[in-house]
Amino acid sequence: MTEPVLSVRGLTTSFRADAFSPWSTVVRDLSFDIGAGETLAIVGESGSGKSVTSLSVMRLLAERTSRIEGSAKLEGSELLALPEAKMRKVRGSAISMIFQEPMTSLNPMMTIGSQVAEVMRCHLGLSAAEAKAEAIRLFEKVRIPNAKDRYDTHPHKLSGGQRQRVMIAMALAARPKLLIADEPTTALDVTIQGQILDLIKDLQVETGMAVLFITHDMGVVAEVSDRTLVMLRGDKVEEGSTADIFARGKHPYTRALLSAVPRLGSMAGRLNPATFGLIDMTTGEATPERALPAAADAPPVLEVKNLCTRFEVRGGLFARVTGAVHAVEDVSFDLRPGETLSLVGESGCGKSTTGRSILRLTHPRAGDIRVDGAAMHALDGKALREARRAIQMVFQDPFASLNPRVSVGTAIAEPFIEQGLGTQAEAREKAGQLLERVGLSAKVMNRLPHEFSGGQRQRICIARALMLDPKIIVADESVSALDVSIKAQVCNLLMDLQESLGLSYLFISHDMAVVERVSHRVAVMYMGEIVEIGPRPAIFERPQHAYTQKLIAAVPVPDPARRVLRRKQDIEEIKSPFRPKDFQPPKREWREVGAGHFVQT
Fold it and tell me: How many whole angstroms separate alpha carbon 30 and alpha carbon 14?
């Protein structure tokens, strides 16, 4: 049997706040091997110890506050015993790492070309000219458009997907034997995610490197990994071939992770949304799925007609208006009582700007917006504040939308008090009731936001949005950053509240599998325009627009049989929405291809 590229035995990692604090163990007695050309996926929720495992192997933890025990051997050489000077030579050459957030890993003051070339000059001894030529070749390999021209570009001028490709190029620059990919696709749009998964698979075939892939997305695991290791609160609870884990997972937590994964196509033939069937980790028993009722056939609670939002761009010596970013262009739709309409598309397509324009958090240039009969586009001051009672927003990042110095009870009660709807005592009583309704306890009202997990903070934001008894909630990527099981729980909560309170949702997301499960209707946005809109079954089972087909084809499916799949998508970047000052948008035509199903021609 050939020696594994990486062999980890009894890895135990502990942390402490300072020299006087006790040690807290976060990874316990972990062992695994990775062979040449093999991909091992480590999966689990946030806090399970996945990233700490990779940082321990790379020796990137602070020595004063961390303690690493056990063994980690790279081709027989003990990494944990190497002097720091020798370990620096191993990092970036024999072992490379792709971090989750490329913008925090790239130097904003250096061009992307110089950062990748630096790796080759340090580890391979190439000259400046040789390193530049090799960096451009790597950029072409990772499919960065116009690679030669982008060499002198700074990171902030690239999209998220392009920055992640730069990180991959940097990780591969010294031809490593082991690549550690820590959540490399979590924050990316589905089409960019698909391209990067294809890229990692292709490069692995070419170079024969071993890959340690860290993620909580079981769809990604199925598509990239040969073997899977499941972690729960620092312990390995199950390990085996990916096909075996998916078909015959034995541990309740493994089955819970798999049951929480929304599978694209699972709603085929079903007209209405349905809750997730989740497995109880303690009993191993599944909760049944529940179909939601259809939306009421009643006058719409939200009407949007010809909405247009543009952002002026100024330039030149006198900062004159040179053009505008056409973020939202001639968008029209309506929303009925008890209905979920999902807006989907890639970053920059105008989804979030549409939601913010409806609430007048961003001022639209033109359009007619009516919320429960009130003309939002024509209101200001007190009238606008009163109209907003009927429509509330749940933002993507719950921690950023909560004041870290204000208790959650005060944060939830604040809208009620500001609108003058009752006394402090009445506000706190209602806040407590809403916390119970979203699955938390009224006893936590005096705690601060940092004392809660991400899923709990999102529940708190939902409770705050419900404080004014709205008819409509705009959920802007409200589950995108959550672990798979927490995402399923929050989606179930939203659907339960919709059923009991008759809420209408404008659900903004790029997660097509979640959208398929929660939606009554779907609108697909591209370049600020809706290119296709219709009932959810029609959009997912009979997509007509080429862009809709591209989005659906890019979704990772939790099926290990797709391990050999290559989507072979084009790498064309999303076009710029900037238009010159005198630009006149073309008049769009629509055709109806089914009942309520319209496609832009």
Answer: 13
Place of tokens 């809706």: 530
Contact 467, 415 (CB under 8 A): yes
pLDDT at 185: 77
Tokens of 204: 């692995």
Give dist(CA 74, CA 76) in Å, integer. Answer: 5
Please state, in angstroms and as integers, the Cα–Cα distance from residue 516 to each residue in 7, 117, 344, 394, following that order: 41, 43, 11, 20
- Kindly report whether the global pTM for this prediction surpasses the value 0.90: no
Domain identity same for 307 and 237: no
Range of the domain at 460: 302-405+448-600
Q: Which two tokens stand for residue 178?
A: 């082991």
Q: Which of 217, 250, 283 is at the close of a domain?
A: 250
530 or 220: whose pLDDT is higher? 530
The CA-based diameter of the chain, rounded to the nearest angstrom, is 75
Q: What is the pLDDT of residues 236-275, one digit of tens each?
A: 999 999 999 999 999 999 988 888 888 888 898 888 999 9
- Give SS3 for 315: strand
List the beta strands (DSSP E) in 44-194: 66-74, 77-78, 95-98, 178-182
Separation between Cα atoms, residue 400 and residue 104, nearest integer Å: 18
pLDDT in tens, 392-426: 999 887 888 899 999 999 999 999 999 999 999 99
The answer to whether residues 182 and 316 belong to one domain is no
The CA distance from 525 to 218, in Å, is: 26
* One domain, residues 346 and 465: yes
Question: Could you give the CA distance from residue 196 to residue 172 in angstroms, rounded to a whole number?
Answer: 14
CA distance 55 to 12: 12
Q: What is the pLDDT of residues 343-366, one digit of tens each?
A: 999 877 899 999 999 999 999 999
CA-to-CA distance for 291 and 517, rounded, in angstroms?
10
Rg (CA), the chain: 25
